[in-house]
Write a structure and sequence with these properties.
Elements lengths: L5 E5 L2 H4 L17 H7 L4 E12 L2 H7 L6 E11 L4 E10 L15
Length: 111
Amino acid sequence: MSPSHLSTSWEPYSLTGGTLVVMPEGGPLAGKGVVRRMVEIGVTVSRATERPEAGHANAEEAVLLGVQRGALVTRIARTYCSDEGRAVETADIVVPTAGCAIEYEVPISSR
């Protein structure tokens, strides 16, 4: 069984170093997500941006995703920002186009 997507993310060590959340997949908040983990260290995540772009799987992505090299993929560049405007996590996500759909929900505020 192949994975549904690939994701590589980065968080600033200057923000997470020396805290319980320094390793996103380790420690007491392992796998809890960037928003929940940042709250633990006093950072409020207030927005996220995602930029989807069509592309083709390179050799490594093809092997990892179980698709042919050159298969259509959607690349998503995602950034979570704090309420102060600082990027607290960036991620590069690759999703094979065949057999899946990408759906977004956009919250609407009347304020």
